[in-house]
User: What shape does this take?
Amino acid sequence: MYRIDWHSLRFRLLAWLGSVALVVVVVTWLMHGFFLENIAKDFLGERLRREADHAVSQLGEERSLVPESLQSVSQSYQVFHHLYVLSIGGSVSASDPKWRTRLSPLLASDRDSLVEVEEGGRHLLVYRRHFSWEDSNGVLLIGEDFSQVEAGLSALHWWVGAVAGALLIVLIVLNMLAVNRGLKPLRELREQLDALQAGKRRRFSVLAPSELNALVEQLNRFMDDIDSRLQRSRESAANLSHALKTPLAAVTQVLRGSRPIDDDRRLKLLVRIESINAQLDAELRRSRIAGPNMGRVTHLMNDSSRLIDMFRGLYPDKEFQITYSSVDRDQVPVEPHDFAEMLGILLDNGGKWAKHYICCDIRLLTETLVIIIDDDGPGVAESDLPRLGERGKRLDERHPGYGLGLSILTQLAARYAGYAQFSHSSLGGLHAEVILPFAEVAR
Assistant: This one.
């Protein structure tokens, strides 16, 4: 049994299109009847007016007595019209005595016009014509029974209604075909969703209308994001397995051995355990990278101010300054944790190496977010600048760390189609700059 899905898009489109077509056809049919009747009245009224003018001109040419003129008019117009009433100088003549009584009130008006009269179930059109004849004023009423014309118009109107009904059915069928054809991309998208769940495909490739292009592109971005997260998770597991196997084996061997643990061996164990902890922390931080497709925004001033206050507490002997250049809005399409991670890495790196000052400048251009950090530390040699951001690369052993922060920063910037670059600062230390182009992310 065919089941109608009342909530489906197809049913809603057909219901709206069918309702609109029905309203248009009914209104057109009603207007057809109205205009058809008025056109017929105007046509007959104009014909009655011309015939009244012709009758008056004949009376003007008649030079005999009034009764003979009336008789002449009576004989002529009884052939062409259903009725007439003629009044000249107080004498009244009619094609039928009954019209003399029933239409005599119309003689009192002093204006030429077409008048509709209902008489005994009959609909009459009567044209009233004033004239002058041999120093006398006269009124001529020429009428015609409109009922027969109305009957013919009614039959024509209902025939037109039958044709309009047939056209409405054809229009509904065409609408069904058009809707089914127009919804074909949605059916293909549903089929590809089923194939995606079954593991038979990895992306959507629907040649969709422009209204659905954004949806398909967004779904593909979500699929790419899921694949990227899965790849990062597998890489993190592989990295941890490779990086932790050797130090864990060494620690286990020492703990299981019978040799006493002196200060030197204890220090080596501590270094290995700290290395394990750093590797775990770095991989966890990488796994928390959300990317640009999460639909979340960062509040620049609130989030950056909170981080600055936190690092002021971590490095009380250093001065952190923050400025906002060309920031015309507070919200940017960056996941808050990702923004905090990028800015936190830069501030932490500046806090470790600066002598006194760390300056942070956040610039929000039309479609780009720029984060700039300058410090007054020793800086980095020109030959070592290109190696900043490489995984596990430490250029100075005087401060604790494992060279993972800047590599995570470059990965985060790459997730937003951006990049990080390093140069010499005007303060004497390192100039770090992160550029995130939102236009590239939106595409």
User: Anything to note?
Assistant: The radius of gyration is 48 Å. The chain is about 55% helix and 20% strand. Residues 9-61 form the longest helix (53 residues).
